[in-house]
Design brief:
Layout: H1 14-47, H2 50-77
Length: about 80
């Protein structure tokens, strides 16, 4: 006796759902890091402390670029 095999569509398989979930989390983090970068830029305008604010702003821009590259790499790999 052979069992009946049911073909599950690709978009309903658990591994595909997990991959889409991770990509969604990365997109949410990208949005968060862009908002954080804008808030740091606004803080820089109001505080006028160039020593600390310049490094914070550079770090936030670097974080945005790294998260976008992480998303693109994950999109290619997954």
């Amino acid at each position: 006796m052979s069992g009946v095999s049911i073909a599950i569509p690709e978009f309903l398989q658990p591994l595909f759902i997990l991959k889409v979930g991770f990509l969604a989390l990365i997109v949410i983090f990208i949005v968060f890091s862009i908002i954080m970068s804008n808030q740091i830029a606004t803080m820089n305008k109001s505080l006028n402390q160039k020593q600390a604010s310049g490094s914070l702003h550079a770090f936030s821009i670097l974080l945005v670029l790294l998260t976008i590259s992480l998303f693109l790499i994950a999109l290619v790999i997954l």
